[in-house]
Amino acid sequence: MRTKHLVPRLPTFSNFGDDNDHGGGGGGGAGGDDLISFLPDSIRALILSFLPTKEAVSTSLLSRQWRYTFASSPCLDFDFSLFLPLRGAKSSFISFVDSTLSLSSSDAPLRRLRLSLAGYSGSEPRVPTWLAAAVARRVEHLELVLPKARSMRLPDSLFSCDSLSSLTLQLCDYPFPLPSPSSLTNLTRFHLASASLLKGTFLRELISCCRNLEELLVEECRVDVFDVVGAPRLKRLGLENCDWMHPIRIRVSDSPRLRTLSYSGRVADEHDFEDLVDLDEVVLDLGKPSKLRESDEECRDCLVKLLGLVGNSRCLLLSPWCIQHLCRAEDLLEIRQDNVKRLELVMASPREGVREIAPLLMSFPSVEDLTISIAFSRLVQWRLAGEQQEVETKGLLRHLKRVRMEYIDRSKSGLELVKFMLKNARSLKKMTIVPLLDGLEHGKFRRKVSKFRRASRDVTIEYCMTNSDI
């Protein structure tokens, strides 16, 4: 897409590539047929950076001027999966990477490199050499995807590259200790997947040495100590489906700029979050607990404490497991989170209707935007019992302005949710329903909704057939 903005500013040309290999195409100067080929090498390399590496390489066939330009592109993407359909995929891929890096000058800056060996069987001894070439070109953004290989180790030089501002390491059960990140002084973004972070040494060094770190994502790693303490510029923190070596305590403190927290997978045994008062967005996509035999009561106590620590963000998302336990916690109503303006509830089934989520809504009295959706993979037809039970509604939903309800038209509880919102949200301006049903059944649903009493005279109801944002 960015190429479209760049091309109109370049000199116009015609018969692109007609000179082929005839000494550079005499039409460049006087005739002006191929002015683009006579731009400086750095400009032509920049143009190619907007293309996938495979297409950039194909420009070497255009003319003599373009033959080696692709190698100096500031953005390179080496993806082994593109070679898998070919016979001799490994040798072809190695030759391609070797030749590209050898043709490039160490003086040519490398802004971005992606090296993906997904699908590559066994170790590749050339990886350290390729990474050394990237380090020599002062690479700034590096994404490395390695397959499972017991002998393929990350070189120490990678963690000594002070030019790196973004580093993504997507590993596969990486068995070795990670080198010290003490030289990554300019790192602002770090994404680590499927590595071992036992004893907490690497994370402590990372936070201590990388004082400019703004984004940290730890995904599917084995962790026994998780301390993020004293990260002055950290804005986004993600803990995604980690394998906690319990008992595990997650500690985050002295990070005054933290705005986004995404926490998914198994819930930890203990949470120590201090001074997280300016959170903009919190995602609690939690499932089964860390302890294999943790009781429901312990789960509820843990979640209520966690909600009290981080639940006062401006935007909050709760997973089905969180909703299930929080709505049954006796001390939930003791927590009042007035800062939450946008709330998203992902429910496991349609039976979790008004009676289920009303206690939760009472803890967020200032919500203006509410999204209620059903987890698609768990949709089941449920028979309801006792859904007509009265719910205390005094002061509930008084600030609610917009509601989005996804896939709730499968059973009676969906209608009850819509009815409840329309009846009690006096400031409601818009209700968007993303239906699951089609045809006659959906028509019946709409006719019933149209008859519900509305507390707000200004509310409009729309049915959206695509799952787009409000």
User: Level of helix content?
Assistant: 10-25%
Structural class: alpha/beta
Please count the beta strands (DSSP E, at least 2 residues each).
20
- State the separation between the terminal residues, measured CA to CA: 25 Å
Shape: globular
- Overall pLDDT score: 79
In DSSP terms (H or I, runs of 4 or more residues), the helix count works out at 11
Largest sheet: 17 strands, parallel
Low-confidence stretches: 1-32, 377-391
Strand content: 15-25%
Describe this structure in words.
With 470 residues, the protein is of the alpha/beta class. It has eleven helices and 20 strands. The chain has helices at residues 2-6, 41-48, 53-58, 89-103, 127-136, 201-209, 296-310, 320-326, 354-362, 412-424, 439-450; strands at residues 75-79, 112-116, 141-145, 166-174, 189-197, 215-219, 222-223, 226-229, 236-240, 243-244, 249-253, 260-267, 270-273, 281-289, 315-318, 342-347, 369-374, 402-406, 430-434, 460-463. The strands form two sheets. It has a 17-stranded parallel β-sheet that branches. Strand 18 (402-406), helix 10 (412-424) and strand 19 (430-434) form a beta-alpha-beta unit. Residues 1-32 and 377-391 have low confidence and may be disordered.
